[in-house]
Amino acid sequence: MSTVRAPQDRRSDIRxxxxxxxxxHGKTTLVDAVLRQxxxxxxxDDMGERIMDSMDQERERGIxxxxxxxxxxxxxxxxxxxxxxxxxxxxxxxxxxxRMVDGVLILVDAKExxxxxxxxxxxxxxxxxxxxxxVINKIDRPDAVIDDVVNRTFDLFVHLGATDEQLDFPIVYTxxxxxxxxxxxxxxxxxxxxxxxxxLEKIPxxxxxxxxxxxxxxxxxxxxxxxxxMGIGKIQSGSIARRQNVMVLGKNGxxxxxxxxxxxxxxxxxxxxxxxxxxxxxxxVAGLDDVSIGDTIADADKPVALPRVSIDEPTVQMTFSxxxxxFAGREGKFLTSRHLRERLFKELxxxxxxxxxxxxxxxxxxxxxxxxLHLSVLIExxxxxxxxxxxxxxEVIVHREGDKVMEPYEELxxxxxxxYQGTVIEELGKRRxxxxxxxxxxxxxxxxxxxxxxxxxxxxxxxxxxxxxxxTRGTVILHHVFSAYEPAEERDLxxxxxxxxxxxxxxxxxxxxxxxxxxRGAMFIGPGVxxxxxxxxxxxxxxxxxxxxxxxxxxxxxxxxxxSDEALVLTPxxxxxxxxxxxxxxxxxxxxxxPQNLRLRKRLLNPDDRRKAKKAGK
Length: 618
Fold this sequence. Notes:
Blueprint: E1 2-3, E2 14-21, H1 24-37, H2 44-52, H3 56-61, E3 68-74, E4 77-83, H4 91-97, E5 103-109, H5 116-127, E6 131-137, H6 146-159, H7 164-167, E7 171-175, E8 180-182, H8 193-202, E9 215-217, E10 220-224, E11 228-237, E12 239-241, E13 245-249, E14 255-259, E15 262-267, E16 270-273, E17 276-278, E18 282-286, E19 296-299, E20 316-321, H9 337-347, E21 355-358, E22 364-369, H10 372-384, E23 389-391, E24 395-396, E25 399-401, E26 404-417, H11 421-430, E27 434-441, E28 449-457, H12 458-461, H13 464-471, E29 477-487, E30 499-503, E31 507-508, H14 511-517, E32 521-523, E33 530-531, E34 535-540, E35 546-548, H15 578-584, E36 589-593, E37 598-602, H16 607-617
Parallel strand pairs: 2-4, 2-5, 5-6, 6-7, 30-35
Antiparallel strand pairs: 1-2, 3-4, 7-8, 9-11, 9-19, 10-11, 11-18, 12-17, 13-14, 13-19, 15-16, 15-18, 20-22, 20-23, 20-24, 21-22, 23-36, 25-26, 26-28, 26-29, 27-28, 30-34, 31-33, 32-34, 34-37, 36-37
């Protein structure tokens, strides 16, 4: 959240705050409670669309992908609220957003406590010197362990190197769904007022210079259907007005003159037009077509640039290429390398933690991001826009420092029923995971769970989720966050290779053929699905590829035998999601992505070509 203090005018104060949380539904509910308390009436579904869910994917995935703004008026003070992504894969959004605010709310679940994604965002906030208010949510849960969560949160602050002033954080206990907050967990609250009072008391006013020349650091971009591109940022000094001449200070000292055509501030969940805004306010500025994230909007006569935002480098990369499968062009609108190139480079304007490099092939691009989720969100968005493409297996990005090879490591947190702890520990050991902490969480209302914390190479996490879900019957919960680049693990990871069931001929799958094939492994398709030679139709139970004919039909004759014509019992195929596909594929496989379908395929569709390539590789 951010706060702006106008000189000698208490009633025009502003507070700018950011909400940090691992569970985004909790953020939605808390913001809705604040809106209702301050008489901004919105249904929670509508609020979810506006502040939490500008993209359909956010609702489906239950995560925040893009930072969003809202504001409320409380006791004559304007509180600007910025919703930050909680996942480290969207760290570019987080790092920019935190530069807008002057304090943060750390929203922690009363049972789960602080999670790795919370750790990532909190580390960034503390490094910027922000003060924090800890909000323990869902205190009415029957399995809440509030004292333990408070202790773990304090330990987290200490671990992240918080100053003595930051360690003296206030704690507010809430049940956001009921719209209540209290400063004493033993004294239930009646409304959300204690939280708002704490914000006004503990979050400082922004450090601004009213009389200095204009400076706004652009930290986000939004496209308005009527006003065009709008740059969003906090006014660090001076003031800005509509129709004012300004200077955009870009990369490498570039100076681009411009004129403000429209100016907006945030009011409730909407942007409200205004004629003028003073230092400390978060504004959206239109009319500057050449503005980019990290640029400074400065005074036209005395332009002074602010330091650009530094973004952590990507850790994972994959190849995006034009779809060249036998089914290419059937469903998509954008098929060519020109379409693909324009879309990827357009994404760079707003997705600052993404990197796109051209390769020696005109129809293939190397795309690097902060993690598999970061890249899969981009792929899914392109798919919904009508693009057809195919992508390769994700690979970690290694760095060389002198004679040392450095690879990314991550902090992995796993919660699993006590029964499966041995299975999980065994699998993580194969992947060179180092167990840092183990704790048994007793529960009076359910199964006791084991909480495990690992330090593990990023490449050890790839494909881990699907394996653990299978071995724990879907009961495992895991989260991971990038830690640092460290010397590469010299020993190979003992990851068992998978074998695929590969279609041997073109055609439509039949129930009879699938019934005869499903004993070989898990199927990815059902009957009546069009397939082509080289398409992956299932996972082999052995660690070798197997060519199968899923289009075979039962030979018809007038001969019948007792029991031979009974109804075939088919095992339901495994659901194909983008995340599953990216984790499953091997180095010789691709994911074919179209607006309507996801297909797995071999790079070389001809089985003879695959055999030759395998021999040449040996």
